[in-house]
Amino acid sequence: MTQTPSSAKGTLYLVPAPLDFGCATQSPLDQSMPAHTLAIAAGLRHWICENAKSTRAYLKRVDASHPLGVSLQELQIQELPREVHKKGDHLGGFDATPLLAAALQGHDVGLVSEAGMPAVADPGSSVVRAAHDLGLRVVPLVGPVSLLLALAASGLNGQNFAFVGYVPADPAERAKRLRELESLALKTGQTQLFIETPYRNTALLQGLLQTLQHNTRLATSSGLTLDTASTHSNLVKQWKQSGWALDNATPTVFAIGR
């Protein structure tokens, strides 16, 4: 049963991270992260994250402009279990309550992903659910969300859209899934957004061009918020004519529709 929020309890802050994780270059934090978000992040001692090492690296960048309230060595960082990373935590099955012990003792806690908004295209929803069930205040902070940036830049339907996660890596299964998504997009007008793991961009793009109909619109957004960011949106037949290729290592959001 959901408990009544209490002022004696801490707040769970959903802290966005810049989208340059895993990229060859990094952009200044003040180009994508509001000062208010960085100030709150700098004041937090307790964290829940995917990876402690990358979280410390992020907070070291924060410290350069907004000095941390404690040293990096004094931060209390807890990692989500590995199986949560692999399978996700939106369907239940993982009890995140123990991770929020500090919040129940009155300490504010930050939830952070390696890039973008935690719990959106990343694990963390189990932590948010547990916070609500414990009567904690949950506050999402402002920062970059790659899916919405890519959608806005695509020229596709922004009134009706769905994020479908990853498509299969197996070529035959991938082609089947892409046809299903294309059929849904063309029938309903709903834009379909999906992503891929690093170094599979080229294979996915080739699969899209081999599978989709000529007049389906395909959009890609790579390296969002970086100076090298690029978005391409064309009909499949135009993609084939242009011969344009993706950087295989740069994080990319794919979208199809009409």
From TrEMBL:
Lineage: Bacteria, Pseudomonadati, Pseudomonadota, Betaproteobacteria, Burkholderiales
Gene Ontology terms for molecular function: methyltransferase activity
Biological process, per Gene Ontology: methylation
InterPro entries, sorted: 4pyrrol_Mease, 4pyrrol_Methylase_sf, 4pyrrole_Mease_sub1, 4pyrrole_Mease_sub2, rRNA_ssu_MeTfrase_I
E.C. number: 2.1.1.198
Organism: Rhodoferax saidenbachensis
Record keywords, A-Z: Cytoplasm, Methyltransferase, rRNA processing, S-adenosyl-L-methionine, Transferase
Domain Tetrapyrrole methylase, chain residue ranges per copy: 99-217
Pfam families in alphabetical order: TP_methylase
Signal peptide start-end: none
Protein name in UniProt: 16S rRNA (Cytidine1402-2'-O)-methyltransferase
